[in-house]
Task: inverse folding
């Protein structure tokens, strides 16, 4: 084995993160996982993510929560993962016109219908274990919206949760819809959502589809980011999980997400610039 071959077999977060950051900034794809050696644990994946967060020239304003596929849960010891959301990537849902979001050619892009929590107060920095009931006390608003899942790496999901975690949690934007004003008085089963892509329904669900409810997703996130030294702050947003599924799109695709009495979100994929 040559020196270069030996070097390529080493997992190196400090070499991986800048490549993801550069590709995202330029809106271009990467041909494979940078360095060729993927993270073996969630801790390694978050190590890359933390370096990328530090290098990204924008304010961290929230987090996404995604599910770890069942086949990976025992090995990794978790059933959810976290990704970062930045200020310039957050849009308020437009009325009468679709919100544009980018699709990186040769990368990954998808639309996910989400229930979103905005924090009502700072979370304690030293609390890393939470119940859904405890998490509920930190909810300022429950809103509807769309997460734009996106990465320069086309195979990000196929390579597994540690890779997803390493590249921003496969997040590339957030569209915020209206708030559900009396959400505490409404059953999760009575918060409907349907995703329509290019005029065709691709999934229907309710907030109850999220395992344990959106509050369970928030409880996971509160503990996970506190353990990483990034406790949630008042005003930050948390997307609680894809309700109708992960719906792959390319530039030109149009999505209409209908939350019944709680509003709609329309968006369209455009080529990354």
Result:
């Amino acid at each position: 084995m040559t020196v270069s071959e030996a070097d390529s077999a080493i997992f190196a977060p400090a070499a991986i993160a800048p490549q993801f950051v550069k590709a995202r900034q330029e809106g271009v794809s990467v041909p494979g996982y940078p360095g060729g050696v993927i993270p073996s644990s969630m801790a390694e994946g978050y190590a890359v993510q933390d370096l990328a967060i530090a290098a990204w020239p924008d304010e961290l304003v929230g987090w996404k929560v995604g599910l770890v596929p069942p086949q990976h849960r025992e090995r990794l010891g978790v059933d959810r993962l976290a990704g970062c959301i930045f200020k310039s990537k957050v849009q308020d849902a437009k009325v009468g016109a679709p919100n544009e979001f980018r699709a990186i050619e040769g990368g990954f892009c998808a639309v996910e219908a989400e229930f979103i929590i905005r924090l009502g107060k700072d979370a304690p920095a030293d609390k890393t274990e939470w119940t859904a009931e405890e998490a509920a006390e930190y909810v300022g608003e429950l809103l509807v919206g769309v997460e734009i899942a996106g990465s320069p790496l086309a195979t990000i999901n196929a390579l597994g949760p540690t890779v997803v975690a390493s590249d921003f949690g496969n997040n590339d934007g957030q569209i915020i819809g209206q708030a559900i004003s009396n959400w505490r008085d409404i059953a999760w089963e009575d918060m409907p959502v349907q995703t329509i892509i290019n005029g065709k329904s691709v999934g229907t669900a309710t907030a109850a589809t999220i395992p344990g409810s959106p509050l369970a997703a928030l409880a996971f996130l509160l503990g996970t980011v506190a353990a990483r030294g990034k406790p949630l702050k008042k005003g930050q947003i948390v997307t609680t999980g894809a309700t109708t599924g992960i719906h792959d799109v390319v530039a030109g695709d149009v999505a209409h997400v209908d939350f019944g009495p709680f509003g709609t979100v329309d968006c369209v994929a455009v080529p990354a610039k």
Q: What stands out?
A: The helical segments are 3-8, 13-26, 42-55, 70-76, 132-136, 161-166, 214-227.
